[in-house]
Amino acid sequence: MKFLKFATSLLLSGALFYFLHFSHGIIPPLGKLLDPFSGFWQNATSEALAPQEDISIPGLQQPVKISYDSASIPHIQAQNLHDLYLAQGYVTAQHRLWQMEFQTMAAAGRLSEIVGSRAVSYDQRQRRKGLGFGAENALSMLEKDTVLFSYVQAYSEGVNAYIRQLSPKDFPLEYKILNYNPEPWSPYKTTLLLKYMADMLTGGDVDEQNTNALKLLGSSYFALLYPDFPEGLDPVAPAGTVWDFEPVAVTTPENVQFPLLFSADSTEKREPGIGSNNWAVSGSKTASGSPILANDPHLALNLPSIWYAMHLQSPEVNTMGATLTGALGVISGFNDSIAWGVTNATRDVRDWYKITFRDSRKEEYLFDGKWLKTQKRIEEIKIKGEESRFDTLVFTHHGPIVYDENYQTSHSLAGFALRWIAHDPSQEQRTFFQLNQARNYKEYTEALPYFSCPAQNIVFASNQGDIALWVQGKFPLRWQDQGKFLLDGSQSAYDWQGFIPQDHAVHILNPERGFVSSANQHSADANYPYYIYDNSFEHYRNRRINQRLTAMTGITPQDMMALQMDNYNLKAAEALAVILPSLDSLSASAESEKIKKALQQWDFMNTALQSAPAYFEIWWHYFYRELWKDLWAQNKALRWPDSYVTIAMLQNFENSIFQDNDTLLFHHDLRDLSQSTFAQMVDSVARWEEKEQKPMEWGRLKKSSIQHLAQLAPFSVDNLMVDGNRSIINANSGRNGASWRMVVELSTPVKAYAIYPGGQSGNPGNPAYSDFIEPWRTGKFLSLHFPARGDSLSEVYRSHQLLPNPEQP
Question: Which GO terms describe its molecular function (predicted)?
Answer without folding.
Answer: hydrolase activity
